[in-house]
Amino acid sequence: MAILGLGLLGGSWGLALKKAGFAGRIVGYARRAETRAQALTAGAIDESLAEASEVVLGADLVILATPVAVILDHLSRLQPHLSPQALVTDVGSTKRRICEHAAKLYDQRPIFLGGHPMAGKERSGLETADARLFENARYVLTPLKPGHSSDPRVKAFRALVASIGARAITSDPAAHDVAVAYLSHLPQLLSSGLAGLMEEKNAAGNLSLELAASGFRDVTRLADSPYSVWRDICLTNTENIQMALDALVQKLESIKLHLADRELEREFLAAHRLRDKLRVLN
């Protein structure tokens, strides 16, 4: 197995496989030699190589665990070096652009399977990797073609996802990107925007952060996420995110309009119903 990108997700994949008793050999690649050495010390990989093209040689499974723009680049650069029997997958937070690009390069030999583990943390980097990160998480798979779901390599990967405690679900790439624009990307931008606003207020001397309690800290937890990761997400899902932001602005305008009447109660009740549904899903 080859893992390209040894940050939170790539490192967690390696650690989770070791925890699950994976008997194969895991070879890892990261741009920085220091990260490769740390991954070896942590036990996330068995071997590291300094060239991405060398890591994938002879690999049965290749996991691209880098930011989206790097995934797109890897898909083109690595294709000539891959075994025809390989399965290539990724962990990108957007899927349409990745799958469209992969469809031009991959069909049966090798095969590509889009992937997005719905698990993560607000901080990135190998030091945040966790062998239990994927436990009880949904793992979205976006095959390029309906027939790919019956391919033995895809079935084997689904079993591997189950072995690390995640639950695989299948989605169309475009539908996935619409859903995560609302459920993942919008919360991130809301958290970052709110934290940025409060920083501006505090810097201007108009707001004392000493009054910030657990509620504010909870809502702004995602603001710790790095721009280097979210830049590519926003660039590859712009229209859907803009649509989600427009919907949120309309909702906030409605709340603003009804601050002094009972219509505000309906918003709270709708929010409670949504939270109840999420509890059932978990």
Topology (elements, then pairings):
Elements: E1 2-4, H1 8-19, E2 27-29, H2 33-42, E3 47-48, H3 52-55, E4 61-64, H4 68-78, E5 87-90, H5 96-103, E6 111-117, E7 138-143, H6 152-163, E8 167-170, H7 173-203, H8 214-219, H9 227-236, H10 238-257, H11 263-281
Parallel strand pairs: 1-2, 1-4, 2-3, 4-5, 5-6, 7-8
Antiparallel strand pairs: 6-7
Helix pairs in contact: 4-5, 7-10
Describe the protein in words.
- The protein is an alpha/beta fold and 282 residues long.
- It is 51% helix and 12% strand.
- Helix 4 (68-78) runs parallel beside helix 5 and helix 7 (173-203) packs across helix 10 (238-257).
- The model has no long low-confidence stretch (mean pLDDT 95).
Which terms summarize this structure?
282 residues; 51% helix; 12% strand; eight-stranded mixed beta sheet; alpha/beta; 8 strands; Rossmann fold
